């Protein structure tokens, strides 16, 4: 798709145009696109499913790749293998269907499997590194690599995937046999907590900031009196201060200005530096 509006592909409903948006359907097609971009020196950006992401208003030059068609999920014994474009929520539901325990924490994480590995996503005391066994990736040269979880340097909301330039194709999660009713009860409870506490009624990029050591980002923002603060169409959520929501056709610039304002206010009031969890990509409007 040429000159594709990226606001149609992000959870925040933000972002300018992509010169060319491609949605490969096979691992071989991903390899071919990566090799073509390298050989022809074309700028290349992996979009993911747009959940923990802000795309700037000027859009993205070159090739933008979305892997949402690589979404197969299958089970082999106590292992669940999921394509990069599959939703991590759906992967946790497949584990439930097979009475496998270990992915319950992921039942409310909105991102893709690839994105979950990229940032070692986590919630409610669990994280990807707790259950990831291995992954299939393509490196920046288009080579196919099979890696173990330990090869990814998974830590709190980080991995070496961005630094290495890896593109995740699929992930294998090593789970344990469990009781269907018990697994479902945990997932139902976590889903209730998420829906009652998070502002799911508005577009957002999820949790904006990492948890600072010894603090909670949302609590610091709330105690700084920032809930409801609005720049343009972007607002610090009244429901959960750790979220910035798009309540009125916000631009990416609205979001970025509000993020900076929150960071400065919290730093001035508490001396704590809030580090962004959300990715920011693309170009400003010239």
Automatic annotation (TrEMBL):
GO biological process annotation, one example: cell wall organization
Pathway as given in its UniProt record: Cell wall biogenesis; peptidoglycan biosynthesis
Catalytic reactions on record: UDP-N-acetyl-alpha-D-muramate + NADP(+) = UDP-N-acetyl-3-O-(1-carboxyvinyl)-alpha-D-glucosamine + NADPH + H(+)
SUPFAM superfamilies, alphabetized: FAD-binding/transporter-associated domain-like (SSF56176), Uridine diphospho-N-Acetylenolpyruvylglucosamine reductase, MurB, C-terminal domain (SSF56194)
Keyword Chloroplast among UniProt keywords: no
GO CC aspect terms: cytosol
GO molecular function list: FAD binding; UDP-N-acetylmuramate dehydrogenase activity
Residues annotated as the enzyme's active site: 157, 207 (proton donor), 277
Cofactor(s) recorded in Swiss-Prot or TrEMBL: FAD
Main location group: cytoplasm
Record domain FAD-binding PCMH-type: where: 14-193
Keywords: Cell cycle, Cell division, Cell shape, Cell wall biogenesis/degradation, Cytoplasm, FAD, Flavoprotein, NADP, Oxidoreductase, Peptidoglycan synthesis
Family: Belongs to the MurB family.
Name this polypeptide is given: UDP-N-acetylenolpyruvoylglucosamine reductase
Organism: Ornithinibacillus halotolerans
